[in-house]
Amino acid sequence: MVSPRPYPSTESAPDGTFPAMKILDPKLKDGVHEWRDGKRFVKDGDKLYLEGTDTLAGSVVTLDKCVRNFSRFTGCSLGEAIKCATFNPARCLGLAHRKGTLRAGADADLVVLDRKGKVLSTWVKGKEVWKKEN
């Protein structure tokens, strides 16, 4: 679920094991925004700060940028960084038979990246749902 405000939700995961975190709308403009408990946060690019402080309150960085950063910061290949963001989490969650892989029988949810790790298209259940405009 996408929310204009990042805050813990009272909603639970499907099995009720943990509260879900609402996701900040990536198109939210830079500036001051209401948060919770009367507090506000400042969005400045990829970063969120508590208003009036230099305290980092979160991030709105996209996953593709995280993958590129991880590759750059660690020196690993883009392929290794992608595996860290896809297959490894799926395996930890017991979903590697369906997610984080391109094998037969998997969900066919995928992102096509260029050689620099920039998103070219997004596919859900084997159907293209987004394509970068040239």
UniProtKB/TrEMBL annotation:
Organism: Pycnoporus cinnabarinus
Protein name: Amidohydrolase-related domain-containing protein
GO biological process, one term: N-acetylglucosamine catabolic process
All residue ranges annotated as the Amidohydrolase-related domain in the record: 40-129
UniProt keyword annotation of GTP-binding present: no
InterPro entries reported in the protein's UniProt record: Amidohydro-rel, Metal-dep_hydrolase_composite, Metal_Hydrolase
SUPFAM superfamilies: Composite domain of metallo-dependent hydrolases, Metallo-dependent hydrolases
One Gene Ontology MF term: N-acetylglucosamine-6-phosphate deacetylase activity
